Amino acid sequence: MAWVAGHFTTWPADDFARFTRSGGTRAPEPVVAALPPSGPPERSPEPTSIAPGTFELRFAELQKAQRFDAMWDLLAEDAQRCWGSRQRFVERMRRQAAEFELLGAEVDGSSIVPEWTDRRRHRTYRNVARLEVRYRIRHGWKESSMQRQVHLVPAAGGWRTLFYPGENLT
Fold this sequence. Notes:
Radius of gyration: 30 Å
Strand content: 25-35%
Order of helices and strands: HHHHHHEEEE
Number of strands: 4
Strand order of the largest sheet: 1-2-3-4
Protein backbone atom coordinates (compact mmCIF):
# COMPACT_ATOMS: atom_id res chain seq x y z
CA MET A 1 0.00 0.00 0.00
CA ALA A 2 2.85 2.42 0.85
CA TRP A 3 4.43 1.70 -2.51
CA VAL A 4 1.22 2.65 -4.38
CA ALA A 5 0.68 5.76 -2.25
CA GLY A 6 4.27 6.83 -2.96
CA HIS A 7 3.39 7.32 -6.61
CA PHE A 8 0.71 9.87 -5.75
CA THR A 9 2.41 11.84 -3.00
CA THR A 10 5.62 13.82 -2.66
CA TRP A 11 8.68 12.69 -0.77
CA PRO A 12 9.39 14.34 2.58
CA ALA A 13 12.36 16.74 2.44
CA ASP A 14 14.63 14.48 4.47
CA ASP A 15 13.84 11.42 2.30
CA PHE A 16 14.31 13.43 -0.89
CA ALA A 17 17.77 14.55 0.21
CA ARG A 18 19.10 10.99 0.24
CA PHE A 19 18.32 10.63 -3.49
CA THR A 20 20.05 13.87 -4.46
CA ARG A 21 23.49 12.97 -3.06
CA SER A 22 25.99 10.98 -4.99
CA GLY A 23 27.52 8.03 -3.27
CA GLY A 24 31.06 9.05 -2.48
CA THR A 25 33.20 9.75 0.49
CA ARG A 26 31.65 13.10 1.16
CA ALA A 27 30.25 13.80 4.57
CA PRO A 28 26.49 13.87 4.72
CA GLU A 29 25.05 17.35 4.35
CA PRO A 30 22.44 18.60 6.77
CA VAL A 31 18.94 18.49 5.39
CA VAL A 32 17.12 21.83 5.40
CA ALA A 33 13.43 21.73 4.80
CA ALA A 34 11.79 24.65 3.01
CA LEU A 35 10.61 27.17 5.57
CA PRO A 36 7.87 29.75 5.18
CA PRO A 37 8.96 33.40 5.15
CA SER A 38 9.68 34.81 8.60
CA GLY A 39 7.35 37.82 8.31
CA PRO A 40 3.90 38.35 6.89
CA PRO A 41 3.80 38.74 3.09
CA GLU A 42 3.89 42.30 1.82
CA ARG A 43 0.62 43.51 0.38
CA SER A 44 0.53 45.69 -2.67
CA PRO A 45 -0.83 49.17 -1.99
CA GLU A 46 -4.56 49.66 -2.28
CA PRO A 47 -5.56 51.16 -5.63
CA THR A 48 -6.34 54.84 -5.37
CA SER A 49 -8.20 56.92 -7.83
CA ILE A 50 -6.50 59.96 -9.25
CA ALA A 51 -7.69 63.29 -7.87
CA PRO A 52 -9.70 65.38 -10.37
CA GLY A 53 -7.20 68.25 -10.25
CA THR A 54 -4.29 65.90 -10.91
CA PHE A 55 -6.18 64.38 -13.82
CA GLU A 56 -6.77 67.79 -15.42
CA LEU A 57 -3.12 68.76 -14.99
CA ARG A 58 -2.10 65.49 -16.65
CA PHE A 59 -4.49 66.23 -19.53
CA ALA A 60 -2.96 69.71 -19.90
CA GLU A 61 0.60 68.31 -19.82
CA LEU A 62 -0.26 65.92 -22.64
CA GLN A 63 -1.65 68.84 -24.63
CA LYS A 64 1.44 70.93 -23.88
CA ALA A 65 3.65 68.04 -25.10
CA GLN A 66 1.37 67.68 -28.16
CA ARG A 67 0.62 64.05 -27.32
CA PHE A 68 -2.87 64.28 -28.75
CA ASP A 69 -3.20 60.55 -29.32
CA ALA A 70 -2.79 59.95 -25.58
CA MET A 71 -5.27 62.74 -24.81
CA TRP A 72 -7.97 60.89 -26.74
CA ASP A 73 -8.01 58.09 -24.16
CA LEU A 74 -8.79 60.64 -21.42
CA LEU A 75 -11.94 61.97 -23.11
CA ALA A 76 -15.38 60.94 -21.86
CA GLU A 77 -17.35 58.74 -24.25
CA ASP A 78 -19.77 61.57 -25.05
CA ALA A 79 -16.88 63.84 -25.98
CA GLN A 80 -15.30 61.13 -28.15
CA ARG A 81 -18.58 60.66 -30.01
CA CYS A 82 -18.80 64.42 -30.57
CA TRP A 83 -15.27 64.55 -32.00
CA GLY A 84 -16.09 61.66 -34.33
CA SER A 85 -12.81 59.74 -34.36
CA ARG A 86 -9.36 59.68 -32.86
CA GLN A 87 -7.82 60.80 -36.16
CA ARG A 88 -10.18 63.77 -36.46
CA PHE A 89 -9.42 64.78 -32.85
CA VAL A 90 -5.65 64.56 -33.40
CA GLU A 91 -5.78 66.55 -36.65
CA ARG A 92 -7.85 69.36 -35.14
CA MET A 93 -5.69 69.52 -32.01
CA ARG A 94 -2.58 69.82 -34.21
CA ARG A 95 -4.20 72.66 -36.12
CA GLN A 96 -5.11 74.39 -32.87
CA ALA A 97 -1.56 73.89 -31.51
CA ALA A 98 -0.13 75.61 -34.57
CA GLU A 99 -2.04 78.73 -33.57
CA PHE A 100 -2.20 78.52 -29.76
CA GLU A 101 0.46 77.07 -27.46
CA LEU A 102 -0.50 75.87 -23.99
CA LEU A 103 2.16 77.02 -21.54
CA GLY A 104 0.67 75.68 -18.32
CA ALA A 105 -2.40 75.06 -16.21
CA GLU A 106 -3.30 75.56 -12.54
CA VAL A 107 -6.33 74.21 -10.74
CA ASP A 108 -7.70 76.96 -8.49
CA GLY A 109 -10.49 74.92 -6.93
CA SER A 110 -12.49 71.74 -7.29
CA SER A 111 -15.69 70.25 -5.98
CA ILE A 112 -17.82 67.18 -6.59
CA VAL A 113 -21.40 67.95 -7.55
CA PRO A 114 -24.02 65.22 -7.30
CA GLU A 115 -25.62 66.20 -10.61
CA TRP A 116 -24.72 68.58 -13.43
CA THR A 117 -26.48 69.34 -16.69
CA ASP A 118 -24.54 70.46 -19.75
CA ARG A 119 -26.90 73.05 -21.22
CA ARG A 120 -25.17 73.06 -24.62
CA ARG A 121 -25.37 69.30 -25.14
CA HIS A 122 -28.57 68.77 -23.08
CA ARG A 123 -26.96 65.96 -21.08
CA THR A 124 -27.11 65.33 -17.34
CA TYR A 125 -24.26 63.63 -15.49
CA ARG A 126 -23.96 62.37 -11.92
CA ASN A 127 -21.02 62.76 -9.46
CA VAL A 128 -19.23 65.31 -11.62
CA ALA A 129 -15.96 66.97 -10.63
CA ARG A 130 -16.19 70.72 -11.29
CA LEU A 131 -12.81 72.43 -11.54
CA GLU A 132 -11.80 76.07 -11.83
CA VAL A 133 -8.71 76.00 -14.02
CA ARG A 134 -6.44 78.83 -15.13
CA TYR A 135 -4.61 78.19 -18.40
CA ARG A 136 -1.60 80.15 -19.64
CA ILE A 137 -1.45 80.29 -23.43
CA ARG A 138 0.66 81.92 -26.12
CA HIS A 139 -0.87 83.21 -29.33
CA GLY A 140 1.89 84.43 -31.58
CA TRP A 141 4.11 86.58 -29.38
CA LYS A 142 1.42 87.42 -26.84
CA GLU A 143 1.01 85.43 -23.62
CA SER A 144 -2.24 85.52 -21.69
CA SER A 145 -4.20 83.49 -19.20
CA MET A 146 -7.81 82.46 -19.16
CA GLN A 147 -10.06 80.97 -16.51
CA ARG A 148 -12.29 78.03 -17.44
CA GLN A 149 -14.69 75.76 -15.63
CA VAL A 150 -13.89 72.14 -16.49
CA HIS A 151 -16.13 69.14 -15.83
CA LEU A 152 -14.90 65.59 -15.35
CA VAL A 153 -17.08 62.50 -15.16
CA PRO A 154 -16.20 59.33 -13.21
CA ALA A 155 -14.91 56.42 -15.26
CA ALA A 156 -13.04 53.19 -14.71
CA GLY A 157 -9.66 54.01 -13.23
CA GLY A 158 -10.42 57.64 -12.44
CA TRP A 159 -11.92 60.47 -14.46
CA ARG A 160 -12.63 61.44 -18.06
CA THR A 161 -12.97 64.98 -19.33
CA LEU A 162 -15.93 66.46 -21.16
CA PHE A 163 -13.64 68.28 -23.60
CA TYR A 164 -15.82 68.93 -26.63
CA PRO A 165 -14.80 70.50 -29.93
CA GLY A 166 -15.26 74.26 -29.97
CA GLU A 167 -17.71 75.93 -32.27
CA ASN A 168 -14.92 76.96 -34.62
CA LEU A 169 -13.69 73.34 -34.86
CA THR A 170 -16.90 71.60 -35.86
